[in-house]
Specification:
3-stranded mixed sheet, 317 residues, alpha/beta, Amdntrnsf_FN0238
């Protein structure tokens, strides 16, 4: 049975977090915090990270934390969902990254800590060679997966190549639903760098900013597919998108209880009605991620890589 929601997530604690100049060229959410030094930014981000991990654990969610040891030299290692994904069939997939200074994140040991926690790894699939051809597909940032219905939603951008998407869907048995998403930057409509800023898909709901999809046919096709798969659609506006209201994740804890994880900034942007809609699908867990969101241009969803790997004892049963 294919699961859409897991009770286990992996996070990477940063060692050199900062605003990444290489990703800022097409991630328009990134901003400077002028009153903080580089050391302050990294320390504040580590504090926000630790608080999120503690909050998740306090609700019974299984958390694997990897400490970035600085060898990756990546300011964005805190966002592992772009670099790697973990699947029910025992597969780990590594993805090709747009920014050269993110590519060393492949050197982080993801497999070891997961095996120590009892997870079974059958196969490692590495797509990163496509970086040599300037073809990128940044994990579950570029791909919003409906695992139950085998649908891969993807907003095409410099971080999400169409040929890479089609090949991924062919080999992993997904049907692509493709669209283009935009945000207004200095009065111009510019592509949004990751799909998971526009769209979140849970078991029975989806959060979507439809006005970010300028093409009416693409927007209608996306809405139709979400409705066909039984999702309650929670629509947000572009201001809420800018506040990372769609960059959230539904998880379960080890007792089977459902939760929606998002940032304080995202939650405060929602109306009371939208919040009530969301609470039907799980208790809300929220955390202050001001520095991570401002400098990194990503939020909770980027920070959590879902672990769907089977347990060793299940495989050996």
């Amino acid at each position: 049975m294919r699961k859409q929601v897991t009770d286990s997530v992996l996070l990477v604690r940063p060692s050199v977090f900062r605003k990444n100049e290489q990703t800022a060229v097409n991630n328009f959410f990134q901003k400077d915090i002028e009153n903080l030094s580089g050391e302050d930014v990294n320390r504040e981000a580590q504090g926000e990270f630790d608080a999120l991990v503690n909050e998740l654990k306090s609700h019974g969610i299984l958390v694997t934390v990897i400490q970035d040891d600085e060898k990756s030299e990546s300011p964005d290692s805190i966002f592992p969902n772009n670099i790697v994904s973990f699947h029910q069939d025992g597969k780990i997939i590594f993805y090709p990254m747009f920014a050269p200074n993110r590519r060393k994140e492949h050197l982080l040991d993801f497999e070891g800590p997961l095996k120590q926690n009892g997870y079974y790894v059958k196969l490692i699939k590495d797509l990163s060679e496509s970086e040599n051809n300037r073809q990128y597909l940044e994990g579950t940032g570029a791909l919003v997966l409906d695992r139950t219905h085998r649908i891969a939603y993807c907003a095409l951008s410099e971080r999400a190549d169409r040929a890479m998407l089609d090949e991924y869907c062919k080999t992993e048995n997904y049907t692509p639903v493709v669209f283009h998403a935009f945000q207004t930057v200095h009065g111009e409509r510019r592509p949004i760098y990751h799909t998971n800023v526009v769209l979140a898909v849970g078991e029975d709901f989806a959060i979507l900013c439809p006005t970010a999809i300028d093409n009416a046919s693409e927007r209608d096709a996306l809405l139709k597919k979400l409705k066909e798969t039984g999702k309650e659609i929670i629509e947000i506006n572009e201001n809420q998108l800018e506040n990372f209201a769609a960059n959230c994740l539904q998880v379960r804890n080890k007792y089977g209880n459902r939760f929606i994880v998002l940032s304080d900034k995202a939650l405060s942007s929602l109306t009371l009605y939208q919040t009530a809609q969301l609470e039907k699908h799980g208790k809300i867990i929220h955390q202050d991620l001001h520095v991570i969101e401002t400098c990194g241009g990503g939020s909770v969803r980027h920070m959590m890589a879902e672990v769907f790997l089977p347990k060793e004892k299940v495989m050996n049963a």
